[in-house]
Design a protein that fits this description.
2 copies of one chain form a homodimer. Chain A has about 400 residues and is of the alpha/beta class. Helices cover about 35% and strands about 15% of the residues of chain A. Chain A contains 12 helices and 14 strands. In chain A, the strands form 2 sheets. A 6-stranded parallel beta sheet of chain A has the order 4-3-5-6-7-13, sandwiched between helices. Chain A has a 6-stranded mixed beta sheet with strand order 9-8-10-11-12-14, with helices on both faces. In chain A, helix 1 crosses helix 2, helix 1 (about 80-85) packs across helix 3 and helix 5 crosses helix 12 (about 360-380). At the A-B interface, strand 1, strand 2, helix 4, helix 5 and strand 4 of A face strand 1, strand 2, helix 4, helix 5 and strand 4 of B. Strand 1 of chain A pairs antiparallel with strand 14 of chain B. The structure holds a DNA duplex (30 and 30 nucleotides).
DNA sequence: TATGCTCATGTCAGCGATGTCATTCGGCCA
DNA sequence: TGGCCGAATGACATCGCTGACATGAGCATA
């Protein structure tokens, strides 16, 4: 009652734009403002002083300079030296107190702590880390398409684990642009991130070899790097797809369609391979007839219609990612009982819809990536590891129907 | 064909654990390794030199020291001075070339650029930002519960916009712990973030007042701060909920249930208020009978069962967040045609399920927050603004049914 | 009483980059 | 031919903090 779970209320909208439905702009916010973006309220003048407040300013003519720029604010941000002056000790002693390294006489400590509190001193990590070529406490994460929640789940798992190692995470994205990868990574390295977790997008990652040789831990996730030998964390794509198809063939299915993205992407290539492997095991070798790996990954619905209406229609479908799964639902509705289907990637409400899937623990995925980082920080010279996130079939009905 | 959308294949799993279904651990990855977490492959010794490679090392006995520590790697990371030495110029000139500030003779520039390339020099932003009390180019984002994709969507929108302003984003989370807020924020400030975007969790944010007075832009999102007068970006929670209920009452509904989280959280409080407002407009004042704001936000299903089976069962339901919406689907299935319902927050497949919702543009939400930051960096002394993200009703069928 | 030690604290340099100011060197004009 | 100017470049200090080392007081031991 008193300590509620604070985030319980935060909404979780879908990323897909409100589709296939009439939209009523009726309930715009307040009532005024035809502004296209948002409603601005002047914000009632609450309890707040103009700008130059800051308690106990050492010496500053608070009268002049109407535009007190941030960087040159009246007392400015307190430094070690400021604290030292106020406490009547040397900067070094303040440093000792703040970092709790050496022993300091109790009375001195008290005086310093008082000064720290009074000036609201906050150590500058930038300066601290500058010494000795040290690097920051942040780990850079380079996502691919920032609009894909997949990466967030991954990031969430990582953040949590990294936090334990006392590290924070810097988020950046390549915005789908392969040519941006090196630039984005470069900007992170300029910040001297402690380590780098990358979802490879560019055709080649060998440009990172130098950085790796310098000792920066680098971990590639979801897709393997090219021309770079580092730790990787990948899904069991092939095994997962094969297991799904195996379970379908065990029920007697032979005409199984595959709906996925183009195979020149690692993830899809692997899943497609798993699909073919499993079919080959039961003697079905020519699967091209059943495969739909459409051009841009957007037009799954059309591909599904197409394959379901061909001469010898499939009795089962493997949708190779959750967007394909969603497309299948849109194409055939939620009550197509005569068709068996299994999707790769779990998704929200799949349980309600009785959609069997190949699932895996996304949080664990992120955790493993973070673990790689932490491990490598400890033993920089260990040989690169290739971790694989296991997947498992989740039976919910749609994948357990025998052929009609 | 040749340039596929790289992230098309990334999966988008649900955050909910695979529920209500039999799980077959059958298809674990490779076949070996009963390890609980993941499969490790020794990673075939690919084309990779041990550690001390780095081209053109100035002077280093590459024979000794088998354990070349990261920080003290052979040539180490190149600095301005290294480049200067190689190019035969002063450090300052290198700086000029790198930052492209002053004019430099073409021949000199060429020499410096060659040296930069050879040593793979990368300027150290930590050092650069140290000067003059400057601050970094990063903006800190303090999420609430990191397990909630909502914040990542928000973060994604922010990241994209901040990127335009040449800023990067540092992500941290309070992990649901109100007492962690000040600590987490402190750690960001120690990194001298350029600005701070916070989802307030603690009971009071007045501790940030000093930082604000120092000129650090602070923006609160999703929930308003307490004891601090800064820019805010909030959803039109109340108006959205009211609009949903208005549309139900217009159809003749009067017995409308409310399923939400406890009201001591801003978001829920507002949505509940909107619900009550709208019902009051049609003369329904005693709504307590229809409200279910269960204790921990986890037990929506039970609350739904409860309210739907009470004496005078409601003819419509407002689910106040998307977890409640999912719970409704689990509780009543996907074909309950005699019940009208509308959910706050859009969600994936809501279109397939014909689920009417109160939706909003999450990307826009983040964009606005970023815009606040950028605006404030430009005009630090402008009065705080209160932005509201508009919401709109999306009609998909479930909310357009008249009472039975 | 001198020696040696520990504890508390201070001095100083330097991390890497850059703002400020100084210096050098050709010309160019009077 | 002298002086002046601007372009190109360098020297130096400095941002905030901390490692290495120094200092000095107090105290116990030989």
């Amino acid at each position: 009652m008193v300590t509620p779970s604070p985030a319980d209320d935060a909404p979780r909208p879908s990323s897909s734009a409100p589709s296939s439905a009439a939209t009523t702009p009726a309930a715009s916010s307040a009532s005024t403002s035809p502004a296209p973006s948002a409603t601005t309220t002047p914000a009632a003048p609450a309890s707040n002083t103009p700008v130059a407040s800051a308690a106990t300013a050492p010496a500053a003519s608070a009268t002049t300079a109407p535009v007190a720029s941030a960087a040159t604010a009246p007392p400015g941000r307190a430094t070690l030296a400021d604290v030292a002056r106020l406490a009547g000790v040397s900067a070094k002693t303040v440093s000792r107190v703040v970092t709790d390294t050496d022993t300091v006489a109790p009375s001195t400590r008290a005086r310093v702590e008082a000064a720290v509190a009074e000036l609201r001193f906050r150590p500058n990590f930038l300066a601290r880390d500058l010494r000795h070529g040290a690097v920051s406490k942040t780990v850079g994460f380079v996502m691919g398409d920032i609009t894909n929640p997949f990466y967030f789940e991954l990031g969430a798992g990582m953040e949590r684990e990294l936090h334990r190692g006392g590290l924070t995470m810097v988020l950046t994205a390549t915005e789908d642009d392969a040519s941006a990868e090196e630039r984005v990574v470069g900007s992170l390295l300029a910040q001297r991130v402690r380590a780098l977790v990358v979802v490879p997008i560019a055709a080649d990652q060998s440009y990172l070899e130098h950085e790796r040789s310098l000792g920066t831990p680098i971990v590639c996730v979801d897709r393997p790097p090219v021309g770079l030998d580092v730790d990787t964390v990948l899904l069991a794509n092939r095994a997962g797809a094969a297991a799904a198809v195996d379970s379908l063939t065990a029920l007697g299915h032979r005409r199984i369609a595959y709906i996925g993205s183009p195979g020149d992407l690692y993830t899809n290539r692997e899943r497609l391979a798993g699909y073919r492997e499993a079919l080959a095991r039961v003697g079905v070798h020519d699967t091209a007839h059943w495969e739909r790996t459409d051009g841009d990954g957007r037009d799954f619905e059309a591909a599904i219609h197409d394959v379901l209406h061909q001469a010898d229609a499939p009795t089962a479908v493997l949708t190779a990612n959750n967007r394909a799964s969603a497309a299948l639902l849109r194409a055939v509705g939620t009550d197509r009982g005569d068709l068996a289907y299994i999707g790769f990637d779990d998704f929200d409400l799949a349980d309600v819809l009785g959609f069997s899937v190949v699932a895996y623990d996304m949080r664990e995925f992120g955790r493993l990536a973070a673990q790689c980082v932490l491990d490598r920080l400890e033993s920089p010279d260990a040989p690169p590891r290739a971790l694989e996130v296991p997947v498992h079939l989740v039976h919910r009905g749609s994948g357990e129907r025998p052929p009609a």
